[in-house]
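Changelog entry: the LysR family transcriptional regulator of beta-lactamase record was regenerated in this release. Current contents:
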Amino acid sequence: MVRPHLPLNALRAFEAAARHLSFTRAAIELCVTQAAVSQQVKLLEQRLGVTLFRRLPRGLMITEEGLALLPTLKDSFDRMADMLERFEAGHMREVLALGAVGTFAVGWLLPRLGDFRTRHPFIDVRLSTNNNRVDIAAEGLDFAIRFGNGAWHDTEAEALFEAPLSALCVPAIAARLKSLEDVGRETLLRSYRVDEWPGWFEAAGTAAPPITGPVFDSSVLMVETALQGAGVALAPPLMFSRHLASGALEQPFPIYVSKGSYWLTRLKSHTPTPAMTAFGEWMTEMAAETRHAPN
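Regenerated structure tokens:
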């Protein structure tokens, strides 16, 4: 595409003035004089044949023509600035957009992410969390770490590891849980997956009591509630190992129920970038260490 000469100085002056609604503040940002900004905007108005600002006694008012022009310019300058910031010491920084279940992000990924940054200092991970409901395409993600059975439409999924659930509670509650029947007398904190507590009691070889406790869409919130002494959570000990190690939480019974695995997923239509390849290989290595670690 052959582009006409772009009056970049004039466009930059207009964009800054439009954001500040002031030639003076735009001049301070651009390190030029107020008169220079005003002149550049005037030249742009002459070239376009429209009025971009109405000059008022105490500032500027942008016209409809100016409002039409501003979003494209702002986005273009932001994208150029973002790209330039990605160059450092002769290297271009790559961006990896990652979505992850909040429990996995807090309990497993964040404690290990420093290792990835050390190995790949020019890859910036942009992490967003979710409650296992994610749209990779709509959210512009390279990868999504999900919990389930690995069956997602048009998605390439690599199994990472299982994270079996067990009963977790504060020591004061654990002290009064002498039998499985005692568990049923406590407030049972649960997720929206209705089969988890019944599955845990089945694994223990006993019938489940009526499950009527609060429902959470995040194990992080559920366990935080348990840490307040408000009940017994059914959550993956692997993701809350720091709380168990510190003694803030206890696992009163060595009984587990597995309802799925964590998976590293991406769209089949998304060709892996070098950053994605590096992250995928690192995740495979870290997940293998977790699978082979002693319980």
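The CA atoms of residues 195 and 259 lie 9 Å apart.
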